[in-house]
Amino acid sequence: MEEEKEGISQEEYDGLIKPYEEALTIIQIRLDSLNAEYRSRSREYPIHNIQQRIKSKISITKKLEKKKLPVSIEVARDELTDIAGIRVICYFEDDIYSVVSAIRKQTGILVIRERDYVKNPKENGYKSYHIVVGVPIYTLEETQYYPVEVQIRTISMDFWASMEHRICYKNGKNQEVSDEKRAILKSFAEELRKIEVSMYEQT
User: Fold this and answer.
1) Is residue 83 part of a domain?
2) Strand residue runs (E) in 117-192
3) Burial letters for 71-80: b for 16+ Cβ neighbours within 10 Å, e otherwise?
4) How many structural domains are present in the chain?
5) Beta carbons of 86 and 99 less than 8 angstroms apart
6) Backbone dihedral angles phi then psi of residue 146, each to the nearest 5 degrees
7) Strand, coil or helix: what is 100?
8) Residue 175 pLDDT
9) C-alpha gyration radius of the chain
């Protein structure tokens, strides 16, 4: 079992994530609404499923340490944009950009950052479209925008990412991946892409 590291108390963590949970709920509702509209309009709807998560206290601590930043709720709030995250799994690559376009058109939220790892994959073969949106959370005193990272990928991209994560973090440890394994992962990603393209052409 992973040991808990000091720096952020449970009480501080509970207070930190509350507005992120609200922001996550808002984006989840927006995406569910989009998905329902897609399904009502067309048999060829783009979204297969939607998953969400809030970073655990341990994950936040590790992320700050990896960035060589002080471990505190203030730094986490100021520096991390992925405390709240949603993953949208699509059927085909074109569907990803349809969903991205729909997110951009949403009123009341801000697009903070976009990274296209679909057209520009990471060195290890990772593919996904990341878009960070700012969601307004209202209190009696003020309105603040909280970031939610939306990752949009196809079923095959998600399968690859899950396998890559399993290999790198086998037995709960961050494993050093050899060049040979990296080459295998990249070839695996390319084979999945070919299968996906072939399936798309048959639709």
Assistant:
1) yes
2) 129-138, 143-154
3) bebebbeeeb
4) 1
5) no
6) -115, 135
7) helix
8) 55
9) 18
Tell whether 49 is covered by a domain: yes
| Residues composing the chain | 203
Amino acid at the residue 163: M
Q: Which domain holds residue 100?
A: 10-156
Answer for the pair 8, 73: CB distance below 8 angstroms, yes or no: yes
Q: Other C-beta atoms within 10 Å of 146: how many?
A: 21
Query: Does this model's pTM top 0.85?
Result: no
Q: What's the pLDDT tens digit per position in 57-86?
A: 999 999 999 999 999 999 999 999 999 999
The answer to whether residue 73 sits within a structural domain is yes
* Tokens at 90, concatenated: 């699509």
Q: Is 159 exposed, middle or buried (0-12, 13-18, 19+ CB in 10 A)?
A: middle
Question: How many other CB atoms sit within 10 Å of the CB of residue 30?
Answer: 19
In the block, tokens 């080459």 appear at: 183
The whole-number pLDDT of residue 90 equals: 94
* 172 falls within a domain: no
Count Cβ atoms below 10 Å from residue 50 Cβ, excluding itself. 17
CA distance 94 to 195: 15
Q: CA–CA distance from 38 to each of 47, 74, 98, 99, 176 (Å)?
A: 8, 39, 11, 10, 42
What is the DSSP-derived secondary structure letter of residue 121? -
Q: At 21, which CATH number? A: 3.30.460.10
